[in-house]
Amino acid sequence: MQIQAVRGDITREAVDAIVNAANSSLLGGGGVDGAIHAAAGPELLAECRELRRTRLPDGLPVGEAVTTGAGNLPCRWVIHTVGPNAHRGQTDPALLRACFAHSLDEAARVGARTVAMPAVSAGVYGWAAQDVARVAVEAVRSWFGEVDLVRFVLFSPAVLATFEGELNGTPGHAPP
Ligand code: AR6
């Protein structure tokens, strides 16, 4: 499996699947979740509402992942995961690791071979980008399955630098 880190807007990624840093309601929010719903259009929200009505009446638990179509996005699937919220005391790295591992499980299940992922929990949910990068890179590296490419798509140069540092074996590398 190839692992990349790039700067960019994940809604523009023409990979098979993108991962959404959602909340348990699956009904949208701010950050990357808001950007994904805005770019995907109402079809995505309708699919999420249907999931809530059927399989997930209580919402998606932290650390789990679920897949929908992608509406108007250039990818084929959106894999929604719920990161741990540090502001609510959810600081166990195992929960964050589960987000990345379960997202890849979902990708393999639906047949997505190329996957773009954001820095789950590094925004509204208050985790340090360095911790997210360490956990995310370790989770992806130790996952085995039928996915060819994982591309971390980071919104800011500083967060990109932390992911590059983890991938290059120089964690803690400060942005210039
Ligand atoms: N492409 C890539 N990364 C992005 C984009 C984008 N278009 N937009 C933001 N980011 P956050 P969380 C980065 O807050 O911490 C929402 O309201 C952002 O800079 O989106 O898991 C949900 O509904 C940051 O580095 O997700 C939840 O309620 C990273 O994505 C809650 O926020 C994650 O930031 C989830 O919080």
List the topology elements.
Blueprint: E1 2-7, E2 17-22, H1 31-40, H2 42-53, E3 65-69, E4 77-82, H3 93-110, E5 114-117, H4 129-141, E6 149-154, H5 157-167
Helix pairs in contact: 3-4, 4-5
The coarse silhouette is globular
Name the ligand types. Answer: ligand AR6
Low-confidence stretches: none
How many structural domains does the protein architecture include?
A: 1
Kindly report the CATH topology.
Leucine Aminopeptidase, subunit E, domain 1
Report the β-strand fraction as a percent range. 15-25%
Which class of secondary structure composition applies to the elements? Answer: alpha/beta
Q: Bin the helical content.
A: 25-40%
State the separation between the terminal residues, measured CA to CA: 29 Å
Tally of DSSP helical segments: 5
> How many beta-strand elements?
6
Provide the gyration radius in Å. 15 Å
| Highest-level CATH class | Alpha Beta
Taking the sheet with the most strands, its summary is: 6 strands, mixed
Mean pLDDT rating: 96
What is the fourth-level CATH superfamily? Leucine Aminopeptidase, subunit E, domain 1
Q: What is the annotated CATH architecture?
A: 3-Layer(aba) Sandwich
SSE string, helix = H, strand = E?
Answer: EEHHEEHEHEH
Strand arrangement, largest sheet? 1-6-5-2-4-3
Walk me through the structure.
The chain has 176 residues and is α/β, with parallel strands linked by helices. The chain has one domain: Leucine Aminopeptidase, subunit E, domain 1, CATH 3.40.220. The chain is 36% helix and 19% strand. The chain contains 5 helices and 6 strands. It has helices at residues 31-40, 42-53, 93-110, 129-141, 157-167; strands at 2-7, 17-22, 65-69, 77-82, 114-117, 149-154. A hairpin with a 7-residue loop joins β3 (65-69) and β4. It is globular and about 45 Å long. The chain starts with a strand and ends in a 9-residue tail after the last helix. The mean pLDDT is 96.
